[in-house]
Design brief:
heterodimer, A: 88 residues, mainly alpha, B: 99 residues, 80% helix
Chain lengths: 88, 99
């Protein structure tokens, strides 16, 4: 695995995006901010796993990305249901 | 083909970064949903197109992942926003200065 300049820039930008989402999750004033940060971080992580598939030159990471996306979506919808049910 | 794939990869990574930056800088949870969903969805799809231009034989799985992101990410954030509104999260208003 050899990284050229484009790969380094892409990995650095995705890492910075993940760090910013984690900062929002850390300092978020209320619970909804943290849930939104978790949602965004899950999508960023899915894209980062696809980039990992390209960097490691192995198509099995695409299955990992799809499964991660499915689980993150189920988690987000379940959290929304919990918030909606707790109020009523 | 490889250069176009590199351009798509850079665009996708920049959009993901800007979405996360908007998540940090927006004043309200609804604005944060908006920034974090739209920009990151576009960035993820652009990253998938870039990877698909680098490895054209992976197009089926990349198409499935792309369609999945395109379908589920707006649904998830929309249901989150509706749940926040039902739970009584108040939207942010810009305060006016009387000067």
């Amino acid at each position: 695995m050899t990284l050229n300049l484009v790969n380094v820039v892409v990995v650095a930008l995705l890492s910075a995006a993940a760090v910013l989402a984690l900062v929002r999750m850390w300092i978020g004033p209320y619970t909804p901010d943290r849930i939104v940060a978790t949602d965004t971080l899950a999508v960023i992580a899915t894209a980062a796993i696809v980039v990992c598939a390209m960097l490691f030159d192995s198509p099995f990471y695409l299955d990992v990305a799809l499964l991660y996306g499915v689980l993150a979506f189920v988690g987000v919808v379940a959290l929304a249901r919990v918030i909606e049910a707790k109020q009523s | 083909m490889s250069i176009i794939g590199d351009v798509f990869l850079i665009i996708g990574a920049v959009f993901c970064f800007l979405g996360a930056l908007g998540l940090l800088r927006m004043p309200d949870v609804y604005n944060r949903i908006q920034a974090g969903t739209k920009a990151v969805t576009l960035g993820s799809l652009s990253l998938l197109i870039g990877v698909g231009l680098h490895h054209p034989d992976w197009w089926a799985k990349l198409l499935i992942v792309g369609i999945f992101i395109l379908l589920t990410n707006p649904i998830g954030s929309s249901s989150l926003a509706r749940a926040f509104q039902h739970a009584g999260v108040i939207a942010w208003k810009k305060e006016r200065s009387e000067s």
